[in-house]
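Task card 7
Instruction: Convert sequence to structure tokens.
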Amino acid sequence: MPLSESEGVPAAVAPPLVPTPGATPSPPHPDLSPPDFHARPWVHARAVGGIAALGLAAGVAGQAEALARAPAGLAAAVGVILLATPALVVGHQYLRMRASPGALLSAVADAFTRGGVVALGVSPAVVWLSATSDLGPTVGALVLFALGAFVLLRTLLNLVDVERLAGGSTEGAGTFALLWTGLGGLIGLRLLFFFTF
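Output:
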């Protein structure tokens, strides 16, 4: 006896979606670079000019000794970049962190660029103090030390950011960045005193 439509075989039911074992989301791409990094050459040139201008600003108004020490800040910054940055890249790769060397170099360059732009902004005030009083060299040195601290702090934050964006550990990156910025600060101070005294 034929079955009625109501007694027919039930329609096939789609099997439930079961996650495939072992399927994990892919980690972030290691070459991912953070936004807002200054990558334009004219910005870097303006930053180098700012650090040089800050040193020269402290040496105006016939202060020959201060003028002779004007390149100290620029020499210290270049020395930190040339002497400490290779240690950053090698140590980062040795510890098997995830951020790419290009991202690390961009992080360091961005911090020094920001510091140079700030130096360019405060140079007119140092020029005015040098031209109207004897406080120019003293204020220039204080601003230079404050600028160095700002650059090191910005570098530390940038290095943690690039490691976080690459999917690495922020704790390990923070410890490593703190040690590296400490090394960079010591090198910068040594070079600054070498060119100043």
